[in-house]
Design brief:
two-stranded antiparallel ribbon; alpha/beta; seven-stranded mixed β-sheet; 9 strands; Spore Coat Polysaccharide Biosynthesis Protein SpsA, Chain A; about 30% helix
């Protein structure tokens, strides 16, 4: 699986990217629109794992994207978390992270899942985080509010938001994002796989402020509004429920 040329998406040494496929194309379109509404100077780099999402985003959504061929999986909606099909899909995400982390023209690499809505420019605070430490994850502990149980060694780093400073870290990131057969076979998702790799490879990381980068546990009772969120990750919501929740909260911008 070769990496497409993403040079045109690099802004001031930074690349913000996401991975999509046929079942996630509407979520990706919505993520793009949330970013466009902010009038940002950079654009989201979108890697499409299948021809269906690639053609859709280019001809229907009319947004730039790249074809990055992944596994052939017939799915018109988000795949159930932890299934074999889901694992095949997110293995492509891990591979993309590995390849992009080795691109010499990228200084800071940011990954965002497609089931995210953005309120303010995420690149600005993430670059500040990266000034202090080279690797950050969203905290995915399953409680709302409060602080991470262990900011330096969070038990639940989330692969839905990852910020990486690449200089001097390419070797560690290549190890982190290499799919090792026996370890991958024990995993249910990319997230628990990366969590184990962080430990086994002895790679230091930190977690982002939970109120600034809230996960899905902040959605009930609008708890996320109590802070000053940069974005909101709609994880812990299954399938089409993501889109329905975004619509209910007023964060669905796709004109269909």
């Amino acid at each position: 699986m070769s990496l497409p040329d993403v040079t045109g998406d690099i802004y001031d040494g930074s690349l913000v990217f996401t991975i999509t496929s046929d079942g996630y194309k509407y979520l990706t379109w919505n993520l793009w629109l949330t970013l466009q509404r902010l009038g940002l100077p950079w654009r989201l780099c979108i890697l499409c794992l299948d021809r269906e999402s690639y053609r859709f985003l280019q001809t229907i959504a009319m947004i730039p994207c790249h074809f990055y061929e992944g596994p052939k999986i017939n799915h018109k909606s988000p795949l159930p978390y932890g299934t074999d099909q889901f694992k095949r899909l997110v293995a492509s995400k891990i591979n993309a992270l590995r390849l992009l982390s080795q691109v010499p023209t990228i200084r800071d690499l940011i990954y965002l899942d497609s089931d995210i809505t953005v309120f303010t420019d995420p690149l600005l605070p993430l670059k500040e985080y990266l000034h202090d430490e080279p690797l950050w994850f969203q905290c995915d502990e399953q409680f709302s509010g409060g602080v991470c149980a262990n900011h330096d060694h969070c038990p639940a780093p989330c692969t839905g938001v990852i910020a990486m400073r690449l200089e001097g870290q390419q070797s560690a990131l290549e190890r982190l994002f290499t799919v090792v057969g026996d370890e991958w076979a024990k995993s249910e998702t990319d997230q628990d796989y990366i969590q184990r790799r962080l430990i086994s490879e002895g790679i230091e990381y930190k977690t982002l402020n939970r109120e600034q980068f809230p996960n899905g546990t902040f959605i009930p009772d609008d708890i996320y509004k109590l802070g000053a969120p940069c974005l909101l990750h709609f994880n812990y919501i299954i399938g089409q429920g993501k889109q329905q929740t975004m619509k209910r909260l007023g964060y669905w911008y796709v004109p269909v």
